Amino acid sequence: MAEKMAEHMTADTYDFFPASSLYPAGWLLCQLRTEAEGLAGHLDLIWPDVRDSKWIGGDREGWERVPYWLDGFIPLAYLLRDGGMIARAQRYVRAILDGQAEDGWICPCPPEGRAGYDMWALLLISKVLVLYASCEPSEAARVETALVRAFRQAAEHLEAHPLFDWGKYRWFEGLIAVNWLYQRTGGEWLLDFADLLHAQGRDYVSLIDREFSAYEQPERKWQWDTHVVNLAMALKAEGLWQKRLGTPASDCGAFPLHMLETLMQHHGMPCGHFTGDECLAGRSPIQGTELCGVVEAMYSYEVLLALTGNPLFGDLLERVALNALPAATSPDLWTHQYDQQINQAACAPETEASVFGTNGREANVFGLEPNYGCCTANMPQGWPKLAMTVFLRRPGGILAALPLPARVETKLDGIPVSVACSGRYPFRDTVTYTVFAGQPVQFALDVRIPGTAASAELDGQPVKPGTIVTLNRIWSGTKTLTLTMSFDVTLDPAGYGDLMVVNRGPLLFAVPIEAVEIVKEYTRDGVERRAPYCDRLLYPAGHFGWLFAAGADAAEVLHPSPVPDDTPVFSPEQTPLAISMPLVPVDWGKKEGFAFCAADLPASREPLGRARRVTMIPYGATMLRMTAMPMC
User: What secondary structure, in 3-state letters, does 191-243 show?
Assistant: First the structure.
């Protein structure tokens, strides 16, 4: 049969492969191993809120922190095929299932406390259990039984005690488990339960289309409607709800894109996310965004890419995952920030006031739980769920969704099939897909072409960036396909007055600032912080004020010595890609009233010397940095 190649902007709905089918490789595998060797892989050993949680019979936090941690630790363990980590994940999940009450209540709360228990924890643990069932199919039936009992009990509970606070604003997260159960059981009562969640939850269409004008400018006060994590999660809310209503898959992404456009217009950051420290913080290079918001935005884009087949969600995912995610953690993944800043001249507590809208003075410090521990528990989901999105499945086909190093092994029409992606994207411009079929079998291989490419060729034929290309053929034996892309270096408006930023493909670039690091070990509220999971205070040791001396045509792309696959690529010490730009030194200055925070705009634009070539590295590889700067 003749091959069919087609380009399209949207495709059929996709679904996620189980972790057992996926084999991360190259630098992506290194990120996962680094995470396992870092904070995410040790929270159940060192952090009381996970180690001694009420979820497993202890006396510490019994709400969101264990479910948050499991949401990343479970796929991490199974992707790495680490027997010890898998056993630890099983211990927690089985303790949670064993602790379910006779009436179906599954959260660690006594009967007398249920009326005041925020049901966000139920919605969160339900999607974690679904994830666990996909990783451990032998326990899927038990998870199904537990969730049926939990949701039937919750339906009765919510009639008397409607959703409030976090549960009200995150109601849609429950639809993930509801849909999973409905596909397995066909129980019509589940649709009624979904309707109940929707009726009691926050209406984000109303928030964005009728009420958002009140939130276009940031306010230094805490509000449910402007909470950055609520909004990052809610990017997928209407898409999931439209799926419940039977809306065509290609139409389920319309409102999420409109919502994102609205948020980015007033609160956007060049790293692909919107500010929120902790609530929407406007457009400023020194306002932050919360790490929880970063990983939740990633998950929203992953769900929406699978749900709608719109390749634009892949571009949005890459922008956040390859910039904002690594920027908020130390290269060894033992510490993280609560808030990251585009122009980040220091990571240290201010002496008195906080530059952040509703967060404390230590929110940009790299540590165990700076400002608040939610990001400590939630950050682990970032890299594993990204790895689980490299390949997606649909009836009769496979989508190569992200050109990141990994392999998928599955069966199509009973025939063993594998697709492997190799290469060093986004640091290099070529990736290779190796397709293997044990016997001749016809299926569609969909390949997403990143929309950030200037041009691209697949298998020697020109293809349009920002599309999904379908190769529908009979596959037999081993076939190699090469995706070659070209990327332009561009100097683009940052969204902060006349400040500009440097982009190449999905990557944002910044000038790294040499830092002096002070390690701070201490104990507070019974939680010990000691190296390597202690506070790391960073102060600038070098110059940090620059202006661009020329446009993008003066940029020189540098390819330093290859970084070994067992070395993290997001590190100031060595990075696989850099850009040399002519810059002029100036006295940028500090924000008035602050000891360490850079000013919003340079205090002076008077050159302190001649233009010189300065090496800019990927934003995600920096800890202290200047990213947004004006032209000379």
Answer: HHHHHHHHHHCCCHHHHHHHHHHHHCCCCCCCCCCCEHHHHHHHCCHHHHHHH
What is the Cα Rg of the chain in Å?
A: 24
Beta bridge partners of 475: 441
DSSP alpha helices (H): ranges in 271-396? Answer: 291-308, 312-319, 325-327, 374-378, 382-387
> Helix, strand, or coil here: 8?
strand
**Alpha-helix residue ranges (DSSP H) falling in 309-458:** 312-319, 325-327, 374-378, 382-387
CA atoms of 28 and 629, how far apart (whole Å): 31
**What are the residues whose beta carbons fall under 8 Å from the beta carbon of 199, sequence distance 6 or more?**
none
Phi and psi dihedrals of 558, rounded to 5? -115, 140
**Torsional class of 215: left (φ above 0), alpha (ψ -120 to 50), beta (otherwise):** alpha
Please name the residues in contact with 356: beta carbons below 8 A apart, sequence gap of 6 or more.
277, 278, 281, 287, 288, 339, 363, 364
For 170-214, the pLDDT digits (tens) are 999 999 999 999 999 999 999 999 999 999 999 999 999 999 999
Task: Tell me the C-alpha to C-alpha distance, in Å, between residue 607 and each of 339, 547, 583, 632.
Answer: 31, 9, 10, 8
Residues 235-287 have pLDDT tens digits of 999 999 999 999 999 899 999 999 999 999 999 999 999 999 999 999 999 99
What does the alpha-carbon distance between residue 485 and residue 465 come to, in Å, rounded to a whole number? 9
Parallel/antiparallel/unpaired status of strands 468-486 and 430-448: antiparallel
pLDDT, one tens digit per residue, over 277-305 is 999 999 999 999 999 999 999 999 999 99
| Total length of the chain | 632
Q: Which helix (H) or strand (E) holds 70?
A: helix 65-80
CB 271 within 8 A of CB 323: yes
Are 600 and 619 in contact, with CB atoms under 8 Å apart?
no
Rounded to the nearest 5 degrees, what angle is found at the Cα of 116, between the Cα atoms of 112 and 121?
105
What are the tens digits of pLDDT across the range 560-616?
877 888 889 999 988 999 999 999 999 999 999 999 999 999 999 999 999 999 999
Peptide bond into 108 cis (omega under 30): no
Distance CA 87, CA 475 (A): 38
CA-CA distance, 143 to 51, in Å (whole number)? 23
473 touches 459 (CB < 8 A) = no
Contacts of 576 (CB under 8 A, 6+ apart): 27, 424, 427, 428, 559, 560, 562, 563, 569
Question: Token match 């999607």: residue?
Answer: 127
Rounded to two decimals, the pTM is: 0.97
Nearby residues of 337 by Cβ (< 8 Å), 6 or more positions away? 288, 291, 328, 329, 347, 363, 364, 365, 366, 370, 375
Tell which residue, 278, 363, 274, has the closest CA to residue 319. Answer: 274
Q: Decide the pairing of beta strands 415-423 and 430-448.
A: antiparallel
Omega cis (within 30) before 514:
no
